[in-house]
Amino acid sequence: MLAQSGQGVAEFNRKELAEKFQCAPSQINYVLETRFSLDHGFVVESRRGGGGYIRIIRVAPQNVQSIRDWLQAELADPISPRKAELILNRLIEEDVISKREAVLIMRVLQAETAEVGSSLADVFRAVILRSILYVILHSEREG
Fold first, then answer.
1. Under CATH, what is the fold of the domain 2-58?
2. pTM score, whole prediction
3. What is the mean pLDDT of the segment spanning 75-101?
């Protein structure tokens, strides 16, 4: 939907979105919160009523420094495997890493956290991911 708009912005009414996501119009806020959050790289604006709309806006970091700032905030706390995957997917979308690099990073994260308890695994996952991405982002600046 957003890719088709070409500008990273799409506007819908609740009924359209409810049909698209196969849910009741009253559930659309929950669906949007889970699929189009700032963590996923989106901002959602909505206005209720007869002329109401829901606007989904793709938020793209403007430069490497803003990506670094975003990553620093995202990786400040322990992260789950799902959050690591979301971060890597966003970096693929922003052309910071390739799909191949993301797969390699996920494999490293899985291998290095497999033998640790889940709370420690989340801490290790954040530290490892932060280290790998630091190297990638700094090598881009030098290269």
1. Phenylalanyl-tRNA Synthetase; Chain B, domain 1 (3.30.56)
2. 0.60
3. 90
